[in-house]
Amino acid sequence: MATYKLLATAAMGLESIVASEVKDMGYETQTENGKVFFEGDERDIAKTNLWLRTADRVKIIAGEFNAFTFDELFEKTKEIEWEKFLPVDAEFPVQGKSVKSTLHSVPNCQSIVKKAIVERLKKAYHRNSFLDESGPRFKIEVSILKDKVQLSIDTSGAGLHKRGYRVDQGEAPLKETLAAALVKLSRWTPDRPFVDPFCGSGTIVIEAAMIGQNIAPGYNREFDSEKWPWIGEDIWNEVREQAEEMANYDQPLNILGTDIDHRMVKIAEQNALEAGFADIIQFEQRQVKDFKTTEENGVVVGNPPYGERIGEIEIIEEMIQDMGRVFSKHPTWSVYILSSMARFETLYGQPATKKRKLFNGFIRTDLFQFWGERPKK
Ligand SMILES: C[S@@+](CC[C@H](N)C(=O)[O-])C[C@H]1O[C@@H](n2cnc3c(N)ncnc32)[C@H](O)[C@@H]1O
What pLDDT is stored for residue 169 in this prediction? Predict the structure, then answer.
């Protein structure tokens, strides 16, 4: 097996969480401009795709160099041994981005890279005619930052947030990768109760259940690199079988999702069923102000609506006040709320133990953390 320079891409704000996930899997990492680099072979490509919960994609760095002219871009792209990655029938769309660089026309850069790879492959495979691109897909990206070109191949295909359990989504679902990050940041362990009082389509509770039973998030989906001849089905099958062995379906979980809207509760139930947690996650239609429990040391994670319209904002402010009141009755519980509201702590009636800046798509938010009292020994 060969060793590749690999890259786990992360959404803005999640870089350090992705990096610690990659480290926890046993790799040495290097983080640069929001990208988490590590090294690995074919099996590692399959493993990281299957297991990373908070990364967007896993890519192979095919080449890196400086380029200031289109000629340079063409020649240096052609020097890369693309035939090591791409079979003669590979489909290889090229996408691009350029930031603070002399070569700033992205369409031109894309077509030059495409032409250079075509030329390289034709020579390597002794083809005079065109390449029909009828085979497996290799999405190529040319990314130029301050004249440094990075050429990468996407091993994931669809973004890793697509786990395959979302049947329906409602209005403002959280991306699965961010939901998993919230659960990780809450430091919840499967022996503690877990509640999302704004569960919407159920993303956070489903991600928590997958973490709780150690289920690989990518187990039920496909990846572009599964079809690549040099990785081979055997490796993927092996990595999937290992994941099946590592899953702990017997781990009891106490996970509850509630929402004011009964239609959302239905959607969440459908998604949980699809994810295989029909009997494991409980759902109820309930307002956050009616939260009650007799249990101790639980964890609440949720993202209430942020409120974009006037009128709506007043209702939401009242709800945050209710939330502060209701959770203050349970001092052993830890509460983690993702919100873009600047006045959140004032309304909640308590300063957060800690805040962490995160982006929900392009919306700047904070994860307001109210840590519970330490469990008595
Ligand atoms: C931003 S969405 C949450 C999305 C969810 N995390 C997901 O991934 O689908 C906010 C949810 O809060 C619910 N909600 C609004 N007011 C509420 C209240 N007072 N009590 C409980 N849920 C409420 C809405 O029905 C909506 O589903």
Answer: 82
